[in-house]
Amino acid sequence: MFNLLRNRWRQFSARLRHERDPERTGRLTGIFVATAAGAPMHSLECTQALVDQGLADDRYALGRGFWRLTDGCQVTLILAENLQAIERQHGLPLGAGQHRRNLVISGLVGVELRHRQLRIGEALLAWHRLRPPCGYLDRVSGSGMAKALGRHGGHCLRVREGGLIQVGDRVTLV
């Protein structure tokens, strides 16, 4: 019951913040790519977002990801604050990309992203849908990872305008 009330409060406060400050911003704190399904994630300082493909050198853009065609994401995103909470609560290491998401951002609330576009560096990305963790995550990152991420598994984005993105870039809701 407490979690339900807390989540509703977060959604309500995010709406209030948006009404007061429609141009909310956050920061890009991490970029991760893998060259193939199950390959280790590599941290990058910068990369190119490719229109209707994903991130350069990532499994999704290269067509080497583990997904069904109807379930694929061009770019995946997760919130740094959620990762920190999961690390504290479950004791799982997540700083080296074990979460298997491409972008890590801080300073925004997940509900703020829904049905919006995000400007990150030169790129414009559109929110597509939630990205819950799947059982494959446990096989690649270790048992219990999917359950730990739970409903904070992230978001799928589509690249609408390509360009360079770099760690430290401002993330602006459009």
What is the secondary structure topology, with strand pairs?
Blueprint: H1 2-20, E1 25-33, E2 42-44, E3 46-50, E4 54-55, H2 59-62, E5 75-79, H3 80-90, E6 103-106, H4 110-113, E7 117-120, E8 123-130, H5 135-141, H6 145-149, E9 155-161, E10 163-166, E11 170-173
Parallel strand pairs: 5-6
Antiparallel strand pairs: 1-2, 1-6, 1-11, 3-4, 3-10, 5-9, 7-8, 7-11, 8-9
Structural key phrases:
174 residues; 3-stranded antiparallel β-sheet; M1 Pyruvate Kinase, Domain 3; alpha+beta; 32% strand
Describe this structure in words.
This is Sulfurase. It comes from Thiocapsa imhoffii. It is a single chain. With 174 residues, this protein is an alpha+beta fold. It has one domain (23-173): Beta Barrel (M1 Pyruvate Kinase, Domain 3), CATH 2.40.33. 29% of the residues lie in helices and 32% in strands. It has six helices and eleven strands. It has helices at 2-20, 59-62, 80-90, 110-113, 135-141, 145-149, and strands at residues 25-33, 42-44, 46-50, 54-55, 75-79, 103-106, 117-120, 123-130, 155-161, 163-166, 170-173. It has a seven-stranded mixed beta barrel with strand order 1-6-5-9-8-7-11. A three-stranded antiparallel β-sheet has the order 4-3-10, with no helix packed on it. The chain is globular. The N and C termini lie far apart (33 Å).
